[in-house]
């Protein structure tokens, strides 16, 4: 295939604007997937993705398009996620492309992540092709939205196709525009190999599979390759593409996007963003790698069954390979035993990782409440980075604490500006700016503590604005705050995994709310359990969990053994995600109680 007939592109959009649906239609129209094999959102291959209806991992497929000019074109389509937590995935996939199809919902218009994704595409020098989706909806206003795109993004929309990804209307025109408006890859097939690793996964038989975009040169079996950042060297076993089925090819040439397998057993050798070259004829410089994404949220993950610590460790290593922004290191908790402190990009990311560990690796886990990274300045002049409240030094040794702030841009209909300002104020936000977008919408700019955002800001925002607001945020810096550590005591014993760092003025309310919530969540036991919240040894709130009176078997009148078994089983099931700390059984929800607190 001639290089000028290759097109490498991503579909970018705000969440739910229809990327995956458009990708499905493109696969159908190019006969990449036969109709009978087609299930909705075929690129979302993880069960979790299909259940939640969101795209988490990017996926690359090769497809052949017979264009109206009579020629065949090879498309490499890379689907990307839209949620703010996964913007690192977007930037990785974009670096493998030359162009991007920008999908905008014609009923909703430009949203916060439409803009954020466009910026990422522009940073990667991509040609952008705007497309208006969902024109079948009665509320669609394609002309208004086109004007919005022109004004806000500066993209010419005179030729923008109006489609319904759902029905397939005009999707064929999008394919033609991909051919005529997006550029072919520029590299040189005769130059030394330069291939960008943009994703990888672990296969238990073949080892690490690296997904690559060949920017220069060619790669084929038996080639001796080097990963430039890690220096690791391997001999290529197979190369190929996904259609989306895996297909083995004799070689991958410049401009192609596919996979390489080389019996790589050491997971650490393959880093996303690294460049692969040949040992014998290396390229001079590595490709511009990806932006390193730093985790913003940390939590502890512990196996419910302590004996499965090593399994958890292995699962995390494998998952990390597939998820470059995941971090983890061993930690111990007096309450929970041996586990790992893990870093995530945000709460959804944390949730997804936890769920993947449980499903794909069959682990039962306890996750502690999430925390941001605090800068703790001690009286001796040193600074500690603390991502675990339990590790905070004693108050007398602390001079001051800084916490991370984000600059948040919230696009919201005018009618809800007041309500959103209220919410931002409540969450300790500092007003920066209020910009008019058009007759109906405003863009609010606030600086907010990240810790407030990760708790329940997103859900609150949706309920304050009936779902009309959209949010994008970036880390903006550290600021000093009046923060204190709040401990929780059960039965007089501090449970380290339940400690949190809170804003001083919120401490009493949170302490109260937390003890009440724990009282509801922790099951009654044979004895009364005091639940207390304390700051620096001073108790600020207290409730009691009353002692248990009946046991579950009391209902069974001794007779029916199968019913008895069922009840016991049910009780066991409920216990699965419980951890016995001292004499008290604590369920998983207790560690997350702080998230739903106000
Ligand atoms: P993420 O993968 O989560 O980022 O979302 P996405 O942008 O891929 O959106 P997706 O394709 O999952 O579509 C979101 C919802 O919009 C689904 O319920 C689709 O059925 C619906 N949808 C997509 N395209 C159209 C369309 O053209 N018309 C209508 N009416 N609904 C559509």
TrEMBL record:
Enzyme class per UniProt: hydrolase
Catalytic activity: GTP + H2O = GDP + phosphate + H(+)
Short name of one Pfam family: EFG_C
Superkingdom of the organism of origin: Bacteria
Membrane-topology descriptor: Peripheral membrane protein
Chain coiled-coil ranges: none
UniProt KW keywords: Cell membrane, GTP-binding, Hydrolase, Membrane, Nucleotide-binding, Protein biosynthesis
Annotated Gene Ontology cellular component terms: plasma membrane
Biological processes annotated in GO: positive regulation of translation
UniProt subcellular location: Cell membrane
Residues that hold GTP according to the record: 16-21, 133-136
EC assignment: 3.6.5.n1
Domain Tr-type G, first and last residues per copy: 4-186
Primary residence: membrane
HAMAP family assigned: LepA
Family listed: Belongs to the TRAFAC class translation factor GTPase superfamily. Classic translation factor GTPase family. LepA subfamily. Belongs to the GTP-binding elongation factor family. LepA subfamily.
Its job: Required for accurate and efficient protein synthesis under certain stress conditions. May act as a fidelity factor of the translation reaction, by catalyzing a one-codon backward translocation of tRNAs on improperly translocated ribosomes. Back-translocation proceeds from a post-translocation (POST) complex to a pre-translocation (PRE) complex, thus giving elongation factor G a second chance to translocate the tRNAs correctly. Binds to ribosomes in a GTP-dependent manner.
Protein name stated in the entry: Elongation factor 4
Organism for this UniProt entry: Faecalicoccus pleomorphus
């Amino acid at each position: 295939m001639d290089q000028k007939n290759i097109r490498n592109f991503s579909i970018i959009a705000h969440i739910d604007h229809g990327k995956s649906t458009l990708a499905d239609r493109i696969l159908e129209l190019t006969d990449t997937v036969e109709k009978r094999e087609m299930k909705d959102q075929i690129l979302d291959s993880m069960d979790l993705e299909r259940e939640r209806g969101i795209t988490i991992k990017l996926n690359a497929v090769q497809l052949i398009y017979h264009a109206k000019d009579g020629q065949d074109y090879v498309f490499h389509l890379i689907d990307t996620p839209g949620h703010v937590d996964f913007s690192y995935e977007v930037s990785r996939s974009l670096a493998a492309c030359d162009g991007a199809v920008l999908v905008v919902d014609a009923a909703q218009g430009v949203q916060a992540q439409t803009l954020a994704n466009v910026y990422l595409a522009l940073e990667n020098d991509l040609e952008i092709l705007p497309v208006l989706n969902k024109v079948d909806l009665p509320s669609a206003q394609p002309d208004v939205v086109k004007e919005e795109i022109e004004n806000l993004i500066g993209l010419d929309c005179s030729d923008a196709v109006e489609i319904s990804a759902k029905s397939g209307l005009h999707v064929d025109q999008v394919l033609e525009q991909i051919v005529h408006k997006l550029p072919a890859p520029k590299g040189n097939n005769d130059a030394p190999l330069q291939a960008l690793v943009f994703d990888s996964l672990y296969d238990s038989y073949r080892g690490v599979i690296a997904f690559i975009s060949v920017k220069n040169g060619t790669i084929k079996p038996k080639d001796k390759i080097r990963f430039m950042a890690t220096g690791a060297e391997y001999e290529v076993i197979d190369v190929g593409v996904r259609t989306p089925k895996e297909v083995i090819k004799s070689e991958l040439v410049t401009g192609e996007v596919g996979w390489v397998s080389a019996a790589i057993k050491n997971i650490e050798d393959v880093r996303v963003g690294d460049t692969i070259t040949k040992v014998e004829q290396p390229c001079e410089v590595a490709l511009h790698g990806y932006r390193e994404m730093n985790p913003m949220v940390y939590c502890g993950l512990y196996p419910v069954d302590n004996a499965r610590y090593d399994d958890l460790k292995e699962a995390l290593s494998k998952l990390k390979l597939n998820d470059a922004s995941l971090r983890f290191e061993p930690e111990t908790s007096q309450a929970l035993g041996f586990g790992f402190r893990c870093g995530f990009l945000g709460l959804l990311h944390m949730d997804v990782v936890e769920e993947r560990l449980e499903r794909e690796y069959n682990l039962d886990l306890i996750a502690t409440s999430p925390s941001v990274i605090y800068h703790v300045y001690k009286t001796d002049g040193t600074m500690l980075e603390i991502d675990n409240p339990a590790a905070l030094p004693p108050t007398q040794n602390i001079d001051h604490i800084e916490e991370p702030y984000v600059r948040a841009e919230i696009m919201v209909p005018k009618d809800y500006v007041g309500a959103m300002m209220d919410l931002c104020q409540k969450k300790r936000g500092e007003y920066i700016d209020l910009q008019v977008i058009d007759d109906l919408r405003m863009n609010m700019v606030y600086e907010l503590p990240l810790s407030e955002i990760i708790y329940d800001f997103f859900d609150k925002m949706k309920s304050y604005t009936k779902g009309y607001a959209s949010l994008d945020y970036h880390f903006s810096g550290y600021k000093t705050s009046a923060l204190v550590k709040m401990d929780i005591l059960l039965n007089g014993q501090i449970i380290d995994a339940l400690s949190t760092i809170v804003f001083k003025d919120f401490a009493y309310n949170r302490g109260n709310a937390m003890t009440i919530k724990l009282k509801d969540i922790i099951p009654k036991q044979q004895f009364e359990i005091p639940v207390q919240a304390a700051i620096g040894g001073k108790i600020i709130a207290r409730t009691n969990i009353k002692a248990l009176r009946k046991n579950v078997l009391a209902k069974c009148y001794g007779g029916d053994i199968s019913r008895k078994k069922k009840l016991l089983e049910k009780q066991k099931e409920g216990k699965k995600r419980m951890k016995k700390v001292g004499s008290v059984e604590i369920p998983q929800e207790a560690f997350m109680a702080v998230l739903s607190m106000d």
